[in-house]
Fold this protein.
Amino acid sequence: MEDLKLKLKEQIIEALNLEGMSPAEIDDAAPMFGEGLGLDSIDALELIVLLEKNYSIRIEDPKDGRAIFESINTMAAYIQSKQIA
Amino acid sequence: MKQPIYINGLGVISPQKTFDVEGFLTEPIEYHENYILALDAAYKEYINPVQIRRMSRILKMTLSAAKKAMQDAGIEKPDAIIAGSGYGCIDDTEKFLLNMLDNKEMMLNPTAFMQSTHNSVAGMVALNVKCNAYNFTYVHRGFSFETSLLDAMMWMQEGKENVLIGGFDENSVNHHTVTNKIDFWKKEKVDAFDLLKTKTIGSISGEGANFMLLSSNKNEHTYGEVKDVKMCYKPNEEELLEALSKFLKKNNLEIKDIDIYLTGLNGDVTQDRIYYRSINELMKDTPVAWFKHLCGDYYTAGSFGLWVAAQICKRQEAPAILMLDGASPKKPIKNILLYNHYRNINHSFYLIQS
């Protein structure tokens, strides 16, 4: 799980061009939108593309995104649950 | 009465040291490739760090250049924003199209799509300075910038006081590869300062983000006055000479009144011929300057030429690197005739007065 979180952080930094940020600076439990990383709705679309491209996971209902993208923890847990299934 | 139009602010990011420097081409850089890129500026000084991460290189260049031009003129919000570009944000366009191909039209990134349109730049500048006024982008190949300038001049005759205009184009590897196949660019390595000695086909591919704040008010920021602009599409030699003659007459000038003849010679032997044979003969007693050895050739390179002319007007000096035969212009430098062409298709005359 820890390896997955680290990889996910690296992919997010690259996809969202979070210049000057390292994986260690992203708190696993901190909210990704609003406070915390301060991402916005366009970033949410980029994250949907990231999941599809890198993990072959397609979010059918965009409403689910709110819970999935809450933090690195929730995102990693979602990826893992899909991979097991 | 015709409203005079002054250039009151400049912001230029080019392959030369033209941004955030005091001097005027004091340290010219010579390139030795047929593909040259603009020097990146300290974009974070002009753009909010939260916004900058999503911006492509051309957006960073143009927004910084636009803000610099307004800052230079002491204007926070213009009455109109008018941009011209031949390629638009071509790097993002290519990125988006390649993604479509690679991913079979699935999983497309929204950012590249949003920024791939030609009018992203003028829109981004407007959002940044909260300007809800007239906002337009002209995409007319080699007339893109000239049309923007003409539009601005017409708006100013109708009462707009401060208009931000800009010409921008970026180099991209894919576009360069394609256009190289159809002889747009030189096949051999070339020393840019010796571009006119090559006598071969093609030019050097350049880029730049060149913005200026035009104003109807003359003040301490003023560089010079834009008296007129004229475009000629695919003229033959006679038509070109006639157009020049009418252009000068319209502005109550004769050839002997021109202090510097600033040309857009691009080093392509098949395209520059028209200059040599006709206008150069006509202007043989006028000091000749050129600028494409400094910025390369691109659809909106005329905007770099206008920056050069504006700087000469204000400083009353033309650095030796600009002068074709080493002849210094006599002072005061009052009238500058800028004659540019893009691939011998789009020809344009500008008259700039100090």
